[in-house]
Every structure is written in structure tokens, then in C-alpha cells.
Amino acid sequence: MKNIVLQILEFLPGFNCGSCKYKSCEDFANALSGNKAKMSQCTMLLQDRFSRQRKALSELLQKSDANIIEECKIVGVIDHYEADIFLEPLNGEPSCREVLLPFLNETYSVGEIIEYRPLACPITHYARIIKKEGSLLTVHMVGPCRRMDRNVKYKSAGLCMILAFEGCYYGKDIKPGQTVRFLPKHCMMQKVHSGVVVNVVDNRVLIEGVDLKVWQASATTNVLE
Q1: Can you tell me the distance from the alpha carbon of 161 to that of 83, in angstroms, rounded to the nearest whole number?
Q2: d(CA 129, CA 117)
């Protein structure tokens, strides 16, 4: 996936002008690689001086391996369920954002590192708090175990419920209100999650109602497993 994006970037003008409605050429390349944008959206690329790049990019996108995100299945490691989308961090961030609801009645602060275990997950997580709204904590993952600097202090948050994920997605087209199966890049078990899409902007998505149980399609119906 990353290799395709880099190949596409080689043929884009690289001005980051925003005429394509994306913040950068890299964001536009990501959208092109997932068939979420069209070459014609880049007005700079339509200029005569970029005719060679335009032709080369067109040929690249027409190749079957240029659409690998659409063609390849996204499959979890633990239960081998197929996901609809793969969830990556937002640009410049270390992991997808998670919104947590701690069950412990403790006081937490932005910037603090917490140790917690998500409900239904057997793995202890370590995360840095980046936002606090009432009892809800938005965090970035910093480690699945104590591989951090031993001098780093953290607070135990005990058992927490993950209410939402936010990140950049690749895979099938999704819409608000749709229940999707997704695989977070930072998940240590590489287990498929499920949730409801509440907001989509370009390739950025917010998914709420998160569950480690997933809807697995069968021949006649969808069954929750």
C-alpha cells in the first residue's frame, strides 16, 4: 500500500496547492491509491508541462496491482475475519486515536501516560492522553507492554471501554451510519473490530460503538460472532 502511494507521488506535481480538495499531494496520492479520487482533480497535472507524468500515472493506476487496496482482502490474524477497512493514524500522529471511558474514579490530565486494559481485550495497553472531555479520554498508543523508558511514569486506569476510533482509512467505500469491520494498524493482536461510522471526510473516519465482536457475512444473513 505504501509502495503504491510513493509511486503515485513520483508523478504528481508536488505543489501541495490544495486544488484537488486535499491538504497535500500525499493525501491526494492516498485517495488515488484507494480509488477515492480522480486524476482530473489535480488541475496542475492537467497542464501541458506535466503531460508525461499524467500519462505515466494513468498507466500506473490502470494496472491491476495499482489498485491493490481494493483487490486484496484485509484479514485479521487472530480469528481470520475479513475487514472492510484498514485504519491508520492521522497524518503525523503515532497511532489511531482512541476514545476511552475509564471505570476507575480517578483524575487524569492531558499529557499523562496511563496503563489500562480495554474491555474484552487480554492485552494491557499504554497510552498518552491528548484530550479530556468530562470522563472521556482521547489517547494515542505508546506501547503494548513495558518496553518504554523505565523512568517514564504512568498511572493505572484499570479496565476501560473503548468508545471510538479515529484515523485514516483504506479499503471499501464507507458512509456515515454504516456498520463496518475494521482493523486498527496499532492493534497488537491484529484483531478485526466492528463499529458504526459517524463521520467521514476524505479518508478520515470516526467510528463509534466499537466492539471486538464482528459481523461475519454468511451465505444467507449476517451473524454476530
Answers
A1: 21
A2: 15
**Higher local confidence (pLDDT), 19 or 215:** 19
Q: Which three cell numbers stand for residue 221?
A: 444473513
> For the chain, which residues make up each domain, given as ranges?
2-71, 74-217
Taking a C-beta distance cutoff of 8 angstroms, is the pair 62, 175 a contact?
no
Three-state secondary structure readout of 17-86: CCCCCCCCHHHHHHHHHCCCCCHHHCCCCCCHHHHHHHHHHHHHHHCHHHHHHHHCCEECCCCCCEECEE
Enumerate the β-bridge partners of residue 155.
114
DSSP secondary structure of 103-164:
SS-----TT-EEEEEETT--S-EEEEEEEEETTEEEEEEEESSS-S-TT---EEEEEEEEEE
The CATH code for residues 2-71 is 1.10.15.40
Burial class (CB in 10 A: 0-12, 13-18, 19+), 21: exposed
List pLDDT tens digits, range 33-65: 877 888 889 988 888 888 999 989 988 887 744
